[in-house]
Queue: 2 jobs
Job 1
Amino acid sequence: MATLRQDGSPANRTVVFRGFVDPAAAPVLSASGHTLGHHSLKLVTDGRSEKMDQLAGRTEVCWYFTKTREQFRLAGQLHAVAPTDPLHAQSWKALSATAQSQFGWPHPGKPRAGDEAFSVTVDPETPAATFTVLLLVPDWVDHLMLRGEPQQRWRYQRQDEPPRTDQHEGHNWTIQAINP
Amino acid sequence: MATLRQDGSPANRTVVFRGFVDPAAAPVLSASGHTLGHHSLKLVTDGRSEKMDQLAGRTEVCWYFTKTREQFRLAGQLHAVAPTDPLHAQSWKALSATAQSQFGWPHPGKPRAGDEAFSVTVDPETPAATFTVLLLVPDWVDHLMLRGEPQQRWRYQRQDEPPRTDQHEGHNWTIQAINP
């Protein structure tokens, strides 16, 4: 997942995909007051990590599926979920104990002092203060299929018109076949 | 590999690592007249691809090794190799016939017209005009090892002093243990 550092350089790291937002649930409230739809990808991060300063810029995820030889590039906006939204606590409880304990570790990316600080306990029922849920809301997708002769590639773009009032997911998308 | 679009958004895609530049060879000349050292990562691309407009900004590669559970983030500058440099033709000849033929395909990323244009032949001995060798010269590395309890993470940074005159690879690097 690539984001933009404040000095204008791209940052790039591996993240764990935690699933799509449940389409049966209510829309999600972001920490900055946005209402987020269901077609978004969920991940979790430490609120002290550098990427938290990089939410304002755009984000592009690249995902390569080795078995099917498909590449998906998904670009859009990354949002932190409000700690008051039910998704926040749900996502915490869905983590393994090992994953939860990492949110009690020392400040990520800072110089390392020693190993003692890594022996911490966190409450499995209550999200740690550092725990943050992020949603990527894509508006651009580049789908490349390397299988086949010649290869196939499609570009999807979300249209800008506002969602219809009777549904959360009213955006239309265009699709175009492009050269691989 | 993440680069910066001219609109300031990050672009992210999978690339094939074509090896390191041979340390026994002479330094490589870039298309813009830079002399590039040996500690650089080689890849090839179509000169018409969008990333060619993104060489001026910084680049960050993220590489996750599934078996060893290590992540390397390598940031630095991306350079196109001068077509006159011997590495250019060497890299062309090292490609498979299938990989070579892709450089005769229609303009990548443009709307697709049909399949006929993909039946082309290229000269296996002479680099196609679209063929481009890129070198990533890293000056910053973030190495995360998820194995072990707790995890290990190191930050490497190249020092800015000019290389010593008696060797091409005179840069010093600092290394620091940081929190995972």
Job 2
Amino acid sequence: MTRTPLRVIPLGGLGEIGRNMMLLEYGDDIIAIDVGLMFPEEEMLGVDLVIPDFTYLRDHPGKLRAVFLTHGHEDHVGALPYFLREFNAPIYSTRLTDGLVRVKLNEHRLLATAETNVVEPGELIQAGVFEVEFFTVAHSIPDACGLIIRTPLGLVVHTGDFKLDHTPVMDQHTDLIRLGQVGAEGCLLLLADSTYAEIDGYTPSEQLVGESIRNILVNTSGRVIIATFASLISRVQQIIDGAAFTGRKVFVTGRSMIDNVAMARQLGYLTAPEGLIVGVEEMRNTPPSKLVVITTGSQGEPTSALTRMANGDHRYITISRGDTVVLSATPIPGNEQAVFRNVDNLFRLGADVLYNRISNIHVRGHASREELKIIQGLLQPEYFVPIHGEYRHLVVHARLAESVGVPVGNAFVMTDGDVLEIDDEAAQLADRIPASYVYVDGLGIGDVDQHILRDRAHLSTDGVVVVIVAVDKQTGRLTRPAEVLSRGFVDVEEGSDILERAKQVVSRALEGAAHYAEFGDINGRIKDSLSKFLYDETRRRPMVLTVTVEV
Amino acid sequence: MTRTPLRVIPLGGLGEIGRNMMLLEYGDDIIAIDVGLMFPEEEMLGVDLVIPDFTYLRDHPGKLRAVFLTHGHEDHVGALPYFLREFNAPIYSTRLTDGLVRVKLNEHRLLATAETNVVEPGELIQAGVFEVEFFTVAHSIPDACGLIIRTPLGLVVHTGDFKLDHTPVMDQHTDLIRLGQVGAEGCLLLLADSTYAEIDGYTPSEQLVGESIRNILVNTSGRVIIATFASLISRVQQIIDGAAFTGRKVFVTGRSMIDNVAMARQLGYLTAPEGLIVGVEEMRNTPPSKLVVITTGSQGEPTSALTRMANGDHRYITISRGDTVVLSATPIPGNEQAVFRNVDNLFRLGADVLYNRISNIHVRGHASREELKIIQGLLQPEYFVPIHGEYRHLVVHARLAESVGVPVGNAFVMTDGDVLEIDDEAAQLADRIPASYVYVDGLGIGDVDQHILRDRAHLSTDGVVVVIVAVDKQTGRLTRPAEVLSRGFVDVEEGSDILERAKQVVSRALEGAAHYAEFGDINGRIKDSLSKFLYDETRRRPMVLTVTVEV
């Protein structure tokens, strides 16, 4: 009988636990599932990316046996370039995921040193005590997989991001049969996607979108421009199929869309009749009624092709009356304002715009509640950990699991850094490891902290006022009037009066200053009086910085 | 035959045209409909409020005859305190709206000079050439009204914010009969609420929510805490009714909820059995199963009562296992993150949380598409202007109107500041008036401009670096090493190396400086070299401020 526990540790995800990374540990062996990144939340001012905290792996060198990637989305693979600067372990993924990762590692000049491996679903990979098998799942990118992990204590299933889709576009079903086999053998622990654990019923099939797109292409007499995620290859295939069906040519624009289409065609994930996809010249010579444009920008990204079109400054495409723009995507929370600004601008330019609120032109890539119940029913796990969701999603998913058979008390709602220990008798949250947000800002990784973010928030609210005083080294008195400058506080022209009076406030603040007053004291006095004066005058609290120059 | 046109001018609303204010002008007479405010969008850093641009009224003194307020929500009455500092015209509204406005004006010490008038629906008010009649509409606040405005050119109908609700809680129906009469007489122009012009079908009745709340109170054994809008008096009444039905006491918390409940009870808009609403002491002595708490904070407002509960620092209410928290509201776009942070935190504290995605505990206050068609059918207006929506809502609403009978070309999608001129032959967008966003920041009204916001955005992204150099007045050379300080850029401890090297960069930049170099040139040199150095080192672009002190 073993007393070594299996340790399950979610990391990263900005509160969506385990979305970006998950560790499984047993004795001296650790495997990692996904190494993704998240885009910063609103209050993470100036931060470019957020990556998981690798401290635990850093503190336990030599234990990491392998990295397994469930699919090629940024929130599951995007932190690899940062990870591989420090760690070297074999990386396993299916073919398209591997293709996407290799493109990324090449950009970061890490391809030569990284060990990437393409695996097939069903293949077994040994990593320390763990034996890992990929199984296919339906999701919004081809080659998405979940993992079946054989551990000394039993079978663990990690769904990755998934939904059930009985009529998927690229024939990638969630492998229910394999899951049934695992259920028959006995599933110790299920880790399952909670993204849509709030949504009743079923997520509709991708086929629905294909039909909508074809209807639009049939019934629209002008040019049709369709924006979607560059990684949503199946959607691109549906658009190509619809174009072929209606005798339209396809023009592809937007850097990541162009790259992904090229890569997917090369790897055979995307097929198009000869001559269907055209370049700029042929696009220009094609009548609008015979044209479909596939573009990036469905999330309102500021420099994306669709945003350029909406702003009237795309290089090749000028929107005008008669155009129909289709947003084949749902705004990711946080992007709504940017997305709808594009919609408004496209309407203003005279286009007809079809978007999620008024058309069936997108379905989501995650399982809804009835699908989650089916997975529970197939696996009947002894323990359950909801993953890939914010705290409330995890809570409702845990309740769902308990309502369909997981023993009460055996569903664990975890937070990043929590350690669930399972041994052959029980499971419990037994430990915590470091799991901060690691901010990437420019070249800096992890150097931007709460202190810097607080300063940025302060600066963003009411700007900055800088005061420079020159004091006589001997007498400690001002040798000239203080200099005051500001940015983001008041209009420099209109506010010149208040800045003038601010100088007098500074002078008065120093009137009683002793000869040998310490600089800290001078700076403190200036700051206090000036902050108070500015607040009384404006009800604003700019950041006040004071510099004393001794002359 | 008159050639004087009727001029229709929407103002304010942050792109939701006419939401905050609407002007009607005929010859020498202007009337204003609503004087509301909007809360700033994300990129309006540090801005407290946004109010409509009053320039046109300022430029045409003596023309404003009256202000008509459709209902008491902030986005329709909130800018009155700013408006009344400059303009004096009689204000007309129904009783509850007047009560809310008077509370607000009293706070701003404007009550003595303002002329507010309570009107009844059906009453006629003459204002210059305009004759105005209020008619009741169903909306999420009692006493909401639309306006029927008799003009020299015909009848204009302004719906205000409305929906149809055939079983409203406080018996406030949208007055379909009166609208039918107007339709029979002939409606020249309809201005109608577009907020939910994207939503198919009907908005459900408030009654549905009443039933849900009662079910929750019946089926929950612990304490129930319900958060909703303080102005949603009918919802508060439903909670009180449910509490009475289930033998629970009611405790009210949150400043604006306490104030509104008191005001609504005083004016007779809210009724509660004697002794049902209790104070702190009695609340503490009431078992959880016999208690309902009504609170503010449904939008995740940082200092609201519910947010304090979620953060564990509310003065009277400590959330624990057994509590059920009900968010009886939908997050307004932009508030989602704050709302769901509260939900997550409440779950963490052990509460059960019911919110819009998983329960029927809120219905919206605006008409959906089928309701909008009914209004069109009753009025059959000659001209139509969709209002109270973003551009896309206006476009789809205009199309809806044309699809049910408004002559094609007679539906005008306007933007704030556009002037629609209607004479006895035709209508056209004929003019534009000033219609900027006017930002209120602290005591400043309109002084924060794009330039200041750009600086705040810059500061918020990468912080600020301040360089102070002292140069010899005679030689133009540095008299000492430059001083460099930063905020929001790099960690001051960890980044001390880069700030040290920055000083050397400054010194080198000035090496070739001529004796009589102008300060602008010195500052320019420093700024250029330092910005480049910092970007090369960090890939960040802090705002660089330089100050040269001559000694």
